[in-house]
Design brief:
By secondary structure, this protein is an all-alpha fold. The protein contains nine helices and no strands. Helix 1 runs antiparallel to helix 7 and helix 4 packs antiparallel against helix 7.
C-alpha cells in the first residue's frame, strides 16, 4: 500500500472517530444516562467522548504526515503544517488544517473547562461546529488519490463521508428539537388569578 492510499484510509478513520465523538457529545448535552436507558449499563460516556476526541486528533495529524513519505505527493513539513501553498489541493487542504487546529483548540479548552468557567467554556465549545464543518467539507471535496480526479459523490469513500455528515446533521437536528421542546415545557404558565383578572377586565370593558 502506498503512503497516499494509507493517508486516505487514515483520513476515513479520523472521520469515523470524529463522528463518534460528536454523537457522544450530543448525548452528553441532553444528559443521556446509559444506566437509565439503553444499554442499561454503567458506561462513562464522558471518558469515551474525551478518548475519541484525542484519537480523532491523532488520526487527523497522521493523515497529512503520511504524505511526507510519498515522492509523488511532493509535500514537505510546511505544506503539512500550513498547506496554503501545498503542491496539490491547497484550498481544500487548508480547510482541513483549519478543522484540525480547531479540534485541538476544543480539546485544550475542554481540559481547562473548570478554570475557564462553565459559561466561557461553553461559548468556546461552540467552535466544535466550525471544526466539524471544515473537516467534513475537506473529506467530501478532497481527492484522496491526488490524481486531480473530479468529485464523485457515489465513490465508496465519499459515500462513507456523506453518511457521516447525514448522521451528524440528523443528530444535531434532533438535539435542537429536544431543546425547543424542553424550553416550551419549562415555560411558566400564566397564573390562574391573573387569567381570571384579565377575564373580568375584558367582561367589564364589554359591558361599558
Amino acid at each position: 500500500m502506498s503512503a497516499i492510499a494509507l493517508s486516505g484510509d487514515v483520513g476515513l478513520i479520523a472521520l469515523f472517530l470524529l463522528t463518534a465523538n460528536l454523537l457522544l457529545g450530543l448525548l452528553i448535552s441532553v444528559r443521556y444516562s446509559p444506566w437509565r436507558f439503553w444499554p442499561h449499563r454503567r458506561i462513562n460516556i464522558f471518558r469515551i467522548h474525551n478518548q475519541t476526541g484525542f484519537a480523532a486528533l491523532g488520526a487527523c495529524i497522521l493523515h497529512p504526515v503520511l504524505l511526507l513519505f510519498s515522492p509523488r505527493a511532493g509535500f514537505d513539513w510546511l505544506d503539512v503544517v500550513f498547506p496554503a501553498w501545498a503542491p496539490r489541493q491547497p484550498t481544500i487542504n487548508l480547510l482541513g488544517a483549519v478543522g484540525v487546529y480547531t479540534l485541538g483548540f476544543v480539546l485544550i479548552t475542554s481540559h481547562y473547562r473548570v478554570e475557564l468557567g462553565r459559561r466561557r467554556w461553553k461559548a468556546l465549545h461552540f467552535s466544535t461546529y466550525l471544526m466539524a464543518g471544515a473537516i467534513f467539507v475537506h473529506g467530501l471535496l478532497t481527492d484522496p488519490h491526488l490524481n486531480g480526479t473530479p468529485f464523485r459523490p457515489l465513490d465508496g469513500g465519499k459515500l462513507f463521508v456523506e453518511g457521516c455528515i447525514l448522521i451528524v446533521a440528523a443528530s444535531v437536528w434532533l438535539r435542537v428539537r429536544h431543546a425547543r421542546r424542553k424550553s416550551r415545557a419549562m415555560a411558566p404558565a400564566p397564573a390562574k388569578e391573573n387569567l381570571e383578572s384579565l377575564t373580568e377586565e375584558t367582561t367589564t370593558e364589554g359591558t361599558l
